[in-house]
Amino acid sequence: MAGDGKRDDQGSEPGEGEPRVDRGLSDRVRRAMAAGFEVATRSKDDLVRAATGEIGAWLDRIDIQGELAKALAKMVVEVKAEIRFVPREDGTIKAEATSDVKVTSSDVKVTSSSK
């Protein structure tokens, strides 16, 4: 094969060992990187699968309805709204609204007003 002038299986000319070495090295690097990416992808998928299972199990254990009912049972929401309809010079009516919201709890008192 070396003396017949044909190309070897790596595609280099006979007597040219360096391109064959470079091509072999780049192929090894490419395969190593592909294997590294494959391992990283599998690790990520395993981590996501485990986290999904844990979060799902946690959500199954908690009683969202009960916890929400307990939180709302401690609250009083007071809403006062005032809407005025004011005539404009062009004959249309403009609505003006003001509101006052008070949320009280056994621990915290919050007041908000808007115009």
Q: How would you characterize this protein structure?
A:
There is one protein chain. The protein is about 50% helix and about 30% strand. It has about 120 residues and is of the alpha+beta class. The protein folds into two domains: about 15-60; about 75-115, no CATH class. A three-stranded antiparallel beta sheet has the order 1-2-3. A hairpin with a 5-residue loop joins strand 1 (about 75-85) and strand 2. The radius of gyration is 37 Å and the shape is elongated. Mean pLDDT is about 80; it is low at about 5-10.
Describe this structure in a few short sentences:
By secondary structure, the protein is an alpha+beta fold. The protein has helices at 17-61, 64-73; strands spanning 75-87, 93-105, 109-114.
What are the low-pLDDT stretches, counting only 5+ consecutive residues below 50?
5-12
Number of helices: 2
Give the biggest sheet: 3 strands, antiparallel
Total strand segments:
3
> How much helix is in the residues?
40-55%
Strand fraction: 25-35%
Structural class: alpha+beta
Overall residue-averaged pLDDT value: 80
Termini separation comes to 92 Å
The ordered string of helix (H) and strand (E) elements is HHEEE
Structurally, the number of domains stands at 2
Main-sheet strand order equals 1-2-3
Topology:
Blueprint: H1 17-61, H2 64-73, E1 75-87, E2 93-105, E3 109-114
Antiparallel strand pairs: 1-2, 2-3
